[in-house]
Amino acid sequence: MTAKMTAKMTATETRQAYRKLPGRRRGVVFSASLWTAADHLLSVKSTRFQEQYKRFYFRDIQAIVVTKVPRLAVSTPVLAAAALLPIAALIARLRLPAAAGWLWLLMAALAAGWIYISIAQSCTCRLYTAVSREDLPSIYRMWTARKALAELEQRIAQVQGVFTENWAEAVDRHTLGPARLASGQPAEGRTRGAARSRTWVSDIFLASLFADAVATMYLMRSQVSWLADVSVALTVVQVASAVGIFVQTYRGILRTAMQRLAIVALLFIGGITYAQMIADTMTAALAGRRGPMAMRARARSGIGRPIYSGGAALLAIAGFVLSFKPE
Amino acid sequence: MSVPCNRCLRPLPKWELAGQHGALCPECGAVSIVRVFPALFYAPSGPVAAEAAAEGEATCFDHPGKRAVAACSRCGRFVCQLCSVEFKDAVWCPSCFTAGEYQAKTVEFENSRTLYDSTALIVAVAPLLLWPFTAISAPIALFVALRYWNRPLSLVRRWRWRSVLAALIALCEIGGWMWGFVYLVLKARR
Predict the structure, then answer these.
(1) In tens digits, what is the pLDDT along chain B, a chain of 190 residues?
(2) CB proximity A326 to B under 8 Å
(3) How is chain A split into domains, by residue range?
(4) Does CATH place domain A15-69+122-188 in 1.10.4160?
(5) Which residues 62-121 of B have a C-beta within 8 angstroms of A?
(6) Cα A293 to Cα A285: distance, rounded to the nearest angstrom
(7) Does B44 touch chain A (CB under 8 A)?
(8) pTM to 2 decimals?
(9) Between chains, do B35 and A153 touch, taking CB under 8 Å as contact?
């Protein structure tokens, strides 16, 4: 039997059967979830390209604390609803005017519901062992916290047993979590001193964003063809430097705020490009012209340019503010 | 030290912890649900001390003055109490354990995995935001989806639908580009 086959067989034998606990955090880049195995809790944090695992054995868990705090967490389902409902309302306005009002009402109700849940029904969850204090980001709503706690309590009680006397009286005499945290020393992993507010990549990104805003603004006044080409070249620079920002954030060189700005900028540029493309195609169709209109898509129309220019300028300014924020 | 509030990190008072309906923090006013388990009250175990070897006794390979308590299940070296690593119902010496040979055989110590299926899907889908980039990204996505098809997935996911979807999207993008080129060439000939 070859070594490869042996390794494959052993890996199959040791494969754990994981069961998902209630609660999941789904961000654009970051997501988190909790899973239970026979003897441990597995915390999974994903950055889309990679998953990080942390195991907490039931025998080692000292305490779990869930605190009610407001959290304006924007998950991908919320983002999708926020993007799709206005589009549906606009389409309904053209095709089915009677339903448009109801859709706007539904959007308002959903927004109000999201704000209420974020403020009144959100929480943070923290788990303690003798050597670690770990935030569990997948548990951020009170109802999932209650469900997850009920399941975890049962599993931990099977391993550790239950208290026979009042633990609240004795809790003062014991150290919860790592001793260095109790003595006031900062937790490991919370101080990311190496992460900077700006790097040369983020500078290029912001400069190209700002230059693109200026170029598009000039294009509104004069029809210079080479300026339109410069705008396209600047968009390519923005995409390349945004990729650089993602890599630097992943390596811990750059702060996550700049990565978020890069994501928003890419979504904005992509959204405007597609809106422009659709508008060009519709204009051509109404005028009775044919041909691949999409190949000529740039920020050409009267409405697209000011929106693009203003949005890019605002994003660049926000980026400059982030860059010079004290580290 | 008592249990701290998650919001302000100040200790929650004992009388609040004893309550059934959550503990109110007197500092920040946040309400916490606290669950404490018996592990908090276990006595901390001190460092393992290896005993000194008497005359004629087997000694540790790395610590000649210490009494051997076991032999490494892989290389056979004698190990003392301090050096013995118990793992998977066997005793290992520190050298064999750190050599990484156990890593290929178990998922119990894995702390990260690269998700090639998600990478392929993102590379296929994300450039659709600025569609001209799909000319470069589609072949890359197809390559990643096929090249890393047999790599292990996430520890907790079991399906390869991301790889399949990434390959399909990449194929569609490549097909779209080919159609575009053919269309332009035919148009130029006319």
Answers:
(1) 578 888 888 888 888 887 777 888 888 888 999 888 888 887 665 556 667 878 788 889 888 888 888 888 888 888 888 888 877 678 888 888 877 655 555 666 788 888 999 999 999 998 888 788 899 999 999 999 999 988 888 888 778 899 999 999 999 999 999 999 999 999 888 7
(2) no
(3) 15-69+122-188, 193-324
(4) no
(5) 104-108, 110-115, 118-119
(6) 10
(7) yes
(8) 0.69
(9) yes
- Interacting residues of A235 by C-beta distance below 8 A, sequence separation 6+: A212, A269, B130
Could you tell me the two tokens for B70? 């076991």
What is the interface pTM, i.e. ipTM, of the complex? 0.75
Cβ of residue B137 closer than 8 Å to a chain A Cβ: no
Task: Identify which of A51, A55, A19 has the alpha carbon closest to the alpha carbon of residue A37.
Answer: A19
